[in-house]
Write a structure and sequence with these properties.
By secondary structure, the protein is an alpha/beta fold. The chain has nine helices and nine strands. The chain has two domains: about 40 residues; about 210 residues, 3-Layer(aba) Sandwich (Rossmann fold), CATH 3.40.50. The chain is globular. InterPro entries: ComF/GntX_DNA_util-trans, PRTase-like, PRTase_dom.
C-alpha cells in the first residue's frame, strides 16, 4: 500500500483520482441547486408581494398592468424614418424609390444617423416612466422600454446592428446620478436582440449644459465636440440607445463622431420622442 503525505506530488493512484472525479460534480450540483432555489424564491416573493402599476396605480405584479401595457405602447403615429418626428399625412415626403416617409428637414439637411425607432411621444402618461428611470433609478422602466423597442424592431425591416451602445453621460453627471439611464435600456435590448453591447465604446469627454434648457441651435453647438470613440467601429453598424430624443442634436453629434471614426451606419433606438405639436 502506498502512503501519500500532504506534500507528495504523486497523485496517480486510481482510487485518489476516482474520488476527485466524484467530488467535483457533486459540488457543482449543490451550487446549481442552490442557485435554482434562490431564483425560485425571488420569483415567489415577487408574485406574493402586492405592487402597483406605475401609470394607473392598480394592482400589478409587473411595472405596468395589462391594460396600460396594451394601451400606451407603439401608438399608431406616422413618423419620419430618419428622426422619428411625428408627421401629419399632409407633410409626408418620400425620397425617390424609398417607401419610407421622411420629414422635410431630414431630406433637406440629413443628420449623421441613418434611422430612428421611437416607441411613443414624450407626453403623459409615458413621460412618467422616463422621469422615474432617469431621476429615481426605477430600472424596471428600462427593461420595459427595451422589451417594446425590441418588438418594434422585430416588426420593421431595418438591419440588425453589430453592437449596441448607450448615449454616454459625462463623468460628472454619471457620478452624481450613479447610473446611466440609457444603459438600463441598452443592455437588455442588446440581450433580446442577441448582439454585443458596450458601455465604454463611446465616452462623453466634455460636460455640457442640460439640453432641455437650450434652444435648437444652442443645443447643436453645445454637443458639437462632446463625444469620443475608444473602440473599433470601422465598418460597423452601431445601434445607439437613449431614453428621450428632443431636437436630435445630441444623437446627431454622437452619430457624426461615430462615422468620423469609421462607422458604416448608425440607428437610434429611442424610448420617447418629443413632438413638435
Amino acid at each position: 500500500m502506498r502512503v501519500f503525505s500532504a506534500s507528495s506530488r504523486d497523485f496517480s493512484d486510481p482510487a485518489v483520482m476516482k474520488s476527485d472525479r466524484i467530488r467535483v460534480p457533486f459540488r457543482t450540483l449543490i451550487t446549481a441547486r442552490a442557485r435554482g432555489f434562490a431564483s425560485a424564491a425571488q420569483w415567489l416573493i415577487a408574485r406574493a408581494l402586492p405592487s402597483q402599476c406605475a401609470l394607473c396605480g392598480n394592482l400589478s405584479q409587473a411595472l405596468l398592468c395589462g391594460g396600460c401595457d396594451a394601451q400606451y405602447w407603439n401608438e399608431p403615429r406616422l413618423r419620419c424614418a430618419t428622426c422619428a418626428l411625428p408627421l401629419a399625412a399632409s407633410v409626408m415626403r418620400r425620397e425617390r424609390e424609398d417607401l419610407r416617409v421622411h420629414c422635410a428637414a431630414c431630406l433637406e439637411s440629413p443628420p449623421a444617423f441613418n434611422d430612428t425607432l421611437a416607441l411613443a411621444d414624450y407626453r403623459a402618461p409615458l413621460d412618467t416612466l422616463a422621469v422615474e428611470l432617469k431621476f429615481r433609478a426605477r430600472l424596471a422602466a428600462g427593461e420595459a422600454f427595451a422589451r417594446h423597442l425590441h418588438a418594434l424592431f422585430e416588426g420593421c425591416n431595418l438591419p440588425v446592428p453589430d453592437v449596441i451602445v448607450p448615449t454616454p453621460l459625462s463623468r460628472a453627471r454619471l457620478t452624481a446620478r450613479g447610473y446611466n439611464q440609457a444603459w438600463a435600456i441598452a443592455r437588455p435590448l442588446a440581450r433580446m436582440m442577441r448582439v454585443h453591447s458596450d458601455a465604454s465604446m463611446v465616452a462623453r469627454v466634455r460636460h455640457t449644459s442640460a439640453q432641455s434648457r437650450l434652444d435648437r441651435e444652442t443645443r447643436r453647438r453645445n454637443v458639437a465636440s462632446a463625444f469620443a470613440v475608444s473602440g473599433d467601429v470601422r465598418g460597423k453598424h452601431i445601434g445607439v440607445v437613449d431614453d428621450v430624443m428632443t431636437s436630435g442634436a445630441t444623437l446627431d453629434a454622437l452619430a457624426r463622431t461615430l462615422k468620423l471614426s469609421g462607422a458604416r451606419r448608425v440607428t437610434n433606438f429611442v424610448a420617447l420622442r418629443t413632438p413638435n405639436d
